[in-house]
Prior knowledge:
Rossmann fold, 2 domains, globular
Amino acid sequence: MSRILFITYPAYGHVAPALAVADVLLAQGHQIAWVTGGQVEYVTQELQMTGIQVYLSSSFDLSPELVRDAEQGKNITVELFFNPARIQCEVEDGRHAINDFRPEVIVTDETHGAKIVAELAQLPWAQILINSLTIPGVKISNRSWIKPSRLKLALLNLALWMVMKYGHRYNYAINHVRKKYGLPPLDSSGVQSVLSPQLNIIPSIPEFEQILLKENCQNIYFVGELLRDRVLGAPSLPWLEEFTKRHPVVYVTQGTSLKRPELFKMALQAFIQLDVQVVMTTGFQMNRDVLLASPIPSNVRIEQWISHQDILPFTDAMVFPGGFSSSIGALFHGVPQV
C-alpha cells in the first residue's frame, strides 16, 4: 500500500473535504500523514483522532498583527497566500515531512508550497480544489455584452477572469520561490498554473466552475460535496431535534476564518422578534462566552461548532460569510443562503 502525504491549510473548510478522501484511503490500507498549521486546535485533534500522523507547520499560523487585521475586517489575502517568505516556509516544512515520512504521493488544496515540494521531490500530486474559481450566474467573457441589471456580478467575474488569466501577483510570488530552489518559472499563467497535471478533485459541480470549462482544463473530476461518514470529536446534540421542530430554523455561522462577535450581535437583534429558532456557531477561533455574557433569547442556541451533517438537515435558511464548503453544503441539503 502507498504512503500519502496531505498538505493543507488548517481551516476546517479545507481539512474536512480532504479528510473525506483520507478516510477512503485509510480504509484501503494506505498510510496517511498530514502537514498543516497548529493554531486551529480542533483540526489537529480530529486528524490525530483519525490516527493520522501530523506535522505542524508555522507557515500556516497567523501573527498577532494578521489576527488583529482580520478581526478589524481588513483583507489579509495577499499576506496569507502570496507572501514569498510564507510560501518558502511551506516548502521547507513540507520537505521536512517528506524526509521523515517518505511519501509516494502528495495531496493538497491550494497550498502553493506543496506543489513546489512535490516537484522538488519528483512526486505525483493531486489537488482538492476548495475555492470556487468563478461567481455563478454570469457567463465569463471579456467580449460579451453586459446587461445593466447584472453589471456588478459581471464585472466581478471579468475581474476574477483577468486575475486568473494573467495572475501577475500569483506568478511573481510562486516564481520568486521557485527560483530560490533552482526551478524554472511557471510555463502557464492563470488557471492552468494552479492545477495538478495528474489529478484535480473538485467538490463542486461544473456549473460553478466556468473558468475551468472555459480553459478546457484536463484531469478534473467533479465529485459534488465531500462529506465524512463520521466527524470525530463532534459534540453530542441531544437538544437539536427538539429545539428545531418548533419553528423554522435559521443557522448563523461565520465559518472557521472570521472572529467578528458584532456579526452575531447584529443577528441576535434581527432575529429576536421573529418567529424562528436560531442556531449560531462561533467557531473555535472565538470564545462563545463573549456572547453568552449577554441575555440570550429562548429561541436562540449558541454553540462553538456543529457538523454540517448534523445541523443542515434541520435548517430552513443559512446566514454565513460565503465560505465554499458551507455554500456547497447548503446546496447539497437544499438550504437557502444569505
